[in-house]
Write the structure tokens for this entry.
Amino acid sequence: MKSYFSELFTGAWSLILGLKVTIKTMFTPIVTVQYPREKLEITPNYRGHIDLIKDAETGTHKCISCGSCQRECPSDCIVVVGEKREGVKGKVLTKFTLDFTKCSLCGACVEVCPTKALDYSNEYELAGDARSDFYFDILKRVEERK
Amino acid sequence: METLHSILPELIRIVICAIGGAVIVFGNALVMGYAERKLAGHIMLRPGPMEVGWHGILQLVVDGIKLMGKQLVVPKQADKPLYMLAPILAFAPVFAPLLLIPFSDKLQGFDIDVGMLVILAFASINVLAILIGGWSSNNKYSLFGAFRSVAQNVAYEIPMLISLLAVVFMTNTFSLREIAAAQSPVWFVLLQPLAFLIYIVAMVAETNRAPFDLPEAESELTAGFHTEYSGMSFSLFVLGEYANMFIVCSVATVFFLGGSSGIPLPYFEYTGALWFLLKVYALMFFLVWIRWTYPRTRFDQLMNFCWKYLIPFSLVNLLITVVVVKLI
Ligand code: SF4
Ligand code: SF4
């Protein structure tokens, strides 16, 4: 008989506590970001696919077409082509592509680059409906970037 | 509508009442459907519907159109006539109780001597609809949902009736208008707090809402008795559920919260309905609040709670009420 009433009271009390929890939550401000319309700042530590860095002084990339990154890449996803031109010291980069379908984001290419020309991008909106959507032309990207 | 009664012929009155009932049923479903999803969202720290219209305010309209456009699927082995009858049976009986509810002194379809009994009788048809729907679907989940619903509703109708009976003993009438009018100095929630609490619990169980939503119990029974229903036949069940919520909350308002009494407004015979609706929607908010707070009870707990706690307590409460009324 004693447990009959004590159960009733502890039960009722726990129900009231539960209601308190939910009503408090109900008036807590919501932090949901309405994604396509609102976007959060991406942390600089985020490691997206690789990108050539745009040098502020020269206004172009620092790649010397040495090909180290292409050789270092364990998944064989980088293609670097450079050519000799009249009157220009060193090689000129003509093609730099990344096959992101195979990239494991290991970062070996970024580490190995002798001129620190590569870095991780902040790109995270990567959805596509074909493989070809993920063959990135890194050279074009750096030229288009302001 | 006594004044209306003398001016307008009976037929027009009936038409007006029917339109009013339909407006309440559909309007209430729109408001509650939106409010429920919004409140559920905020209780879970998310915004709820946001896409259609300002803060998703048109979401329910779009949902309604979607449901109307959907195909009505009848399972191959289902008992077709019964299967089609069940949603209608869940939805149609909600109109009669609406006509009896005294929204204010003059806004009431009909006032009859046994208003309370009629409302409760119509409310119990809902169980039959669920049983038929579950049985005729020829699906084991639906059948389980239907069985649970019957056991639950039969059990919870007892404390519900007994707790209302305590109020009836105090007022000596079954007429809803007179019960509401009898509370002009003090609301019965203060004189009969226990009966009010018991009624609230039984009311949640009667409308099959969480934490007593065992007939639907989506984690165990897919969707319970309406697993097989789609499109409009499904939405009739939902409309019926929201209308039933409105009715049981109105009954609680009439019996315990003083009906349309409140701070007087101009034309109070009519504007009292504002107070009435305010009380009803406060109770509905409470229903939504507990739905998103408590986990679903187990079936044996549900039955234990009714037979071991609610019924004995309501009987004791009734006994005390009778003795006190007799002595005073
Ligand atoms: S991150 Fe690794 S896998 Fe990706 S391109 Fe660079 S070296 Fe290749
Ligand atoms: S390692 Fe650096 S400099 Fe060499 S090709 Fe790759 S990006 Fe260009």
In short: Residues 34 and 60 of chain B are 6 Å apart (CA to CA). The pocket of iron/sulfur cluster (ligand 2) is lined by residues A 63-69, 80, 112-113, 115, 117-118 (CB under 6 Å). Chain B touches chain A through 15 residues (CB under 8 Å).
